[in-house]
Amino acid sequence: MTFEENGIYVKGSHGQEKIKCPRCSPTRKKSFDTCLSVNIDDGVWNCHHCGWKGSLNKKRQIVETIIEKPKPPKTNIPDNVYEWFEDRGISREVVDREKIGYDNRWIHFPFYKDGEVVNIKSRTGDKRFRQSKNAEKCFYRFDNMKGMETIIITEGEMDALSLVECGFINTVSVPDGAPAEGTKPSDRKFSYLLSAEEHLMNAETVILCTDSDGAGKHLRDELSRRIGREKCFRVTYPEGCKDMNDVLINHGRDKVEEIVSNAHPYPIDGVVMVQDVEDDAIDLLLKPDVKGLSTGWSAIDQHYLVSASELTIVTGVPNMGKSEWMDAVMINMVKLYGWNFGIFSAENFPVKHHLLKLVGKFLGQPFWGDDRISEDKARKTMKILNEHIKFIGIQEDSVTIESIMDQAKILNYRYGLQGLIVDPWNTLEHKFNDGENETLYVSRVLSQLSAFAKMNEMHIWIVAHPRKMENGVDRKPVVPTPYDIAGSANWYNKSDNAITVHRHRSEHEDYAGIHVHKIRFQYKNGKPTNNQPAKLKYDVSRGVYEDYIEEFKEDLFE
Predict the structure, then answer these.
(1) Which end of the chain has the lower number of beta carbons within 10 A, N or C?
(2) Is 389 inside a domain boundary?
(3) CA–CA separation, 103 vs 83, rounded Å?
(4) Mean pLDDT of 285-296
(5) What DSSP string describes 275-333?
(6) What residues form DSSP beta bridges with 314?
(7) 460 versus 398: which is more confidently predicted?
(8) What is the predicted pLDDT for the residue at 89?
(9) Residues 493-539: pLDDT tens digits?
(10) Is residue 196 part of a domain?
């Protein structure tokens, strides 16, 4: 079975594409919309409009889930329901204009998209909620964001109506409220962003009016991270108010207008106002012992922990295992914390080979030989990896750091990346500005990467080969440092963390040494190793790094 046999025509041979759906696009008002996501490598597809899903894999049953469109709700609203809205600052005019319905204790909020009802969210006066079964997930008041230079996003329908009441017709609401505080936002929870991608990307300003509690801030920060902090603004509510409806009820229309007008941007361009970091500073005050995340090895924990919004440089002599170590870090972060990664790995081509290596690391089992991974285990693991790892730029003839950041931004919007790996730096096409030498170029690009990491709350790893590899008195390679990478001291100065991966071999011991040269924020991420590297055992057959145990060092390597 091929894509073409199913009426699906893709342009490339690898990666993911978003194209028109042969099932629903011809009958839609906006027939040019690219609503079908196709994963060419996995042979699967999914339409975000009609719900058509399928697979080319004969061992998988082709599953079709047809999204059901509910009928518009009845709008015969009794006076007591109108009064309920009026008590919350929402006029009869707005209730009628938004075509809100009522039936047997349930108030119905219809979700219109392209002029059609695609979902209905219902609630009672005592805050019981439900949504239409098998309905499409999209923003409430979706059509009101089309063509808008400024879009306002709220956490709930009543907050959206509060802003509409005050004249802000460019207001929409997320369909499912905020994810629980302290949880990792799932891609499924944010699936409504896919259909709104064009409108949010074209908007100049997005004002986030989520609730002021922990879950609301969690939602606000994740939306801003995916949409792009450079265009996002956030609001501050008066004391005692949790959301916009509270403001409307307790302070009136003028206060709502004032809050929206005074929305402030996320800190960018090197200028930080106190109000920009107030909440973050209070979080640090209340949680002073919050540390970075472990990479999964106890030997490294005291020297290197992973925090969001940072740039880590990894170097090492060729064939010393730095790419293998980076793969192991990625797999550990996926297994331990459910992180999502984008990875550019030019030396691991084609992707199918790299994928099998990652499967082996995930399972701790070789993918070759008599002991190789079974097909069933491999497919189950690939399903997990498909959720968390996206390969970048492999199909391109030449890749620049700018193109990687562009793709990472798209992936971040759709999937919420926590990590980005560029391996290696030396294979990229580097485009110097006029009059720019290598030193100035490296300084500029590393500054861009550092800013990108901070703006998107993403940890970025750059793997770079040293320009020179000297041998010591025993003719063994000397451990390189970031200063040995072409581009001068910028590799050390511009990074938050700097690491060398180096294999140490002698008749007495054999181990992979993780040399941590720099940790910018030592209070939360550890201290450099100085002259004693953190030791790891590297099992070549399984591609697995493990904590090094001194008493068994003679058995570590074959």
Answers:
(1) C
(2) yes
(3) 16
(4) 82
(5) HHHHHHHHHHHH-TT---B--S-HHHHTT--B-TT-EEEEE--TTSSHHHHHHHHHHHH
(6) 463, 499
(7) 460
(8) 97
(9) 999 999 999 988 776 678 899 999 999 999 899 999 988 899 999 88
(10) yes
Query: Residue 539 corresponds to which amino acid?
Result: D
Q: Residues, the chain, total?
A: 558
Q: Does 136 reside within a domain?
A: yes
- Per-range mean pLDDT, top range of 9-23, 137-151, 169-183, 467-481: 137-151
At 138, give phi and psi (nearest 5°). Answer: -155, 175
The identity of residue 240, as a single letter, is G
**pLDDT the model gives residue 120:** 96
3-state secondary structure of 213: coil
The answer to whether 303 and 534 are in contact (CB under 8 A) is yes
pTM: 0.73
- Which has the higher per-residue pLDDT, 293 or 283? 293
**Strand 16-19 versus strand 232-234 pairing type:** unpaired
CA 269 – CA 356 distance, rounded (Å): 42
Last residue of a domain, one of 216, 248, 282: 282
Q: Are residues 360 and 424 in the same domain?
A: yes
Q: Over the stretch 86-126, which tens digit does the pLDDT of each residue have? A: 999 999 999 999 999 999 889 999 999 999 999 999 999 88
Residue 270 or 403, more confident: 403
CA angle 515, 530, 519 (to 5 degrees): 70
The CATH number for 236's domain is 3.40.1360.10
More confident residue, 276 or 211: 211
Cα atoms found within 13 Å of the Cα of residue 360, Cβ hemisphere only: 22
Q: Is the separation of the CB atoms in 49 and 60 below 8 Å? A: no
Residues 447 and 409 grouped into a single domain: yes
Number of H helices, E strands in the chain: 17, 22
Reading the block at residue 369, the tokens are 């030989």
In the chain, the N- to C-terminal Cα span, in Å, equals 44
In a domain, 540, yes or no: no
Domain encompassing residue 384: 308-329+337-507
**Residue linked to tokens 């074209």:** 202
